[in-house]
Design brief:
Layout (H helix, E strand, L loop, with lengths): L3 E9 L15 H13 L3 E6 L7 E5 L5 H9 L2 H4 L3 E9 L5
Antiparallel strand pairs: 1-3, 1-4, 2-3
Length: about 100
């Protein structure tokens, strides 16, 4: 059986402050708290920021997390609602793992 997941990608939104570190963006703490819920529930396998100039980050859910559930969770993020972050949910097949 294939391991298919719906990965969440974040990128800076229209409210992102250029030249300000990702860790100093107003309201980013809300984003972290939101995803800590998913982690605590056992529905998040990995997550974190990209460290290049484009910014953003991604969240990889645990196996079996439903697309509709994950999409609703991603859209409920206060940082997405405020425009600090944009979100995209993409289907991904785990092709290799140890």
């Amino acid at each position: 059986m294939r391991d298919i997941r719906f990965v969440i990608f974040h990128s800076p939104g229209p409210a992102w402050l250029p030249g300000v570190s990702m860790f100093e963006q107003p309201g980013l703490q809300n984003h972290l708290e939101h995803y800590r819920q998913l982690l605590a529930d056992g529905r998040l396998a990995l997550g974190g920021p990209f460290l290049d100039a484009a910014g953003g980050g991604m969240m990889v859910p645990a196996p079996g997390v439903d697309e509709a559930e994950l999409r609703a969770f991603a859209l409920a993020d206060r940082c997405v609602a405020s425009g600090l972050l944009q979100v995209e949910v993409r289907q991904w097949m785990v092709g290799m793992k140890s």
